[in-house]
Amino acid sequence: MGQSVRFDGNHKKNNLVTEHLKDLFNLVPICPEVAIGMGVPRQPIRLMKRANDTVRALGVRDPALDVTDELRNFADDIAPTLATFSGYIFKKDSPSCGVFGVKLYGSEGMPAENGRGIFSEQVLRANPSMPVEEEGRLNDLELRDNFIKRVSVYHDWQSRIRQGLTCHSFEEFHRIHKFTLLAHDQPCYRRLGKYVADCTNSELSKRSEYYITEFMNALKIIPTADQNINVIMHIMGFLKRDITASDKAELVRTMEKYRAGDVSRDVPLGLISHHLKNHPNQYLSSQHYLNHGMPTTGCAAASVSHL
Predict the structure, then answer these.
(1) Is 130 helix (H, G, I), strand (E, B) or coil?
(2) Which residues contact 260 (CB under 8 A, 6 or more apart)?
(3) DSSP 3-state assignment of 301?
(4) Residue 3 and residue 13: Cα distance in Å, rounded?
(5) What dihedral do alpha carbons 169, 269, 136, 105 form, nearest 10°?
(6) Please, how many CA atoms are within 13 Å of residue 292, restricted to the half-sphere of its CB?
(7) Interstrand relation of 299-304 and 55-59 (parallel, antiparallel or unpaired)
(8) Confidence band (pLDDT; 50, 70, 90) for 252?
(9) How far, in Å, CA of 239 to CA of 258, rounded?
(10) Mean pLDDT of the chain
(11) Smallest Cα–Cα separation from 153: which of 198, 191, 184?
(12) Domain segments of the chain as ranges
């Protein structure tokens, strides 16, 4: 975020987060190391794996400094606030906040394997469905778009929970996100469709908890071109009586160009949107997939402040 909260008194401002994502999300900066009183500047910490396989966050210069419990307790203390977030952007490589491939040191003082930050691990354990990403990985356009999509879907789910989830709103959520789910994980799409259809008020709480966990896990899968084309073909089926043979042929050609990597997915979806303007279809217009998964401005997302 550009705040000088690094262990050396500097910052790691990420312009992609502060300039691009700020228009999509309300960004809430958090630095657990400062929050637990370590100060700026401070002794750097690293993850150490002990003989009993426990992992601790210890001082690099003074291993007697152990802030493991403090970081975990801080995560527990702010758990009610974190539960309101629609996503979390963590700092890569951080022993407190890293998610993927944080260096884990052995007894010899050399990195032996990869681990996960103490604070981030506690946050993920308490919020298994919440979309998370590391700021470094957001430079990958595909991963960034996927994260934005997941935050948008999860934000919609949270809104329904706050309003009081009913069987009707549960079914509605699945209906407007079904093509998105189909693109990411077809078996999950089939399984959850039956799960929602069989829901009763007495089972709503239990079923909805299982459902959103499975749904959000499915969205972590990056769809292939063929998976997206399968969805676009489904959508095209809803328009087959409205568009001409020439329109259908043009749409098929753009899908083949997309399959070959010559154009982006936006090109065939743009044609679908064009046809929907001429031939309105309420069901298709409500689909999250056709809105490109973009969240409305104001979705909540937390971003670790020592970026």
Answers:
(1) coil
(2) none
(3) strand
(4) 7
(5) 70
(6) 14
(7) unpaired
(8) very high
(9) 20
(10) 91
(11) 184
(12) 15-138+297-304, 141-219, 225-291
Question: Which three-class secondary structure state does DSSP give residue 223?
Answer: coil
CB 30 within 8 A of CB 304: yes
Determine which helix (DSSP H) or strand (DSSP E) holds 233, and give its type and residue range. Answer: helix 225-238
Residue 62 CB neighbours (<10 A): 9
Helix, strand, coil proportions of the chain in percent (round to 5)? 55, 10, 35
For residue 298, pLDDT beyond 70 = no
Mean pLDDT of 104-119: 87
Among 152, 141, 139, 142, which residue's Cα sits nearest to residue 228?
142
b/e sequence 75-97, b meaning 16+ C-beta within 10 Å: beebeeebeebbbbbbbbbbbbb
Side chain identity at 222, as an amino acid letter? I
Using an 8 Å Cβ cutoff, are 181 and 218 in contact?
yes
Residue range 257-268: average pLDDT? 96
- Specify the pLDDT at position 301: 53
29: left (phi over 0), alpha (psi -120 to 50) or beta: beta
- pLDDT, tens only, 149-185: 999 999 999 999 999 999 999 999 999 999 999 999 9
CA–CA gap between residue 155 and residue 301 (Å, rounded): 10
Q: Which residues on adjacent β-strands are paired with residue 293?
A: none
DSSP code at position 48: E
Q: What are residue 132's phi and psi, to 5 degrees?
A: -135, 155
For 134, the 3-state DSSP assignment is strand
Task: Quote the longest CA-to-CA distance of the chain.
Answer: 74
CA distance 207 to 240: 36
pTM exceeding the 0.70 threshold for the entire prediction: yes
User: Residues in the chain, how many?
Assistant: 307
Query: Using an 8 Å Cβ cutoff, are 45 and 58 in contact?
Result: yes
Are 276 and 284 contacting, i.e. CB atoms less than 8 angstroms apart? yes
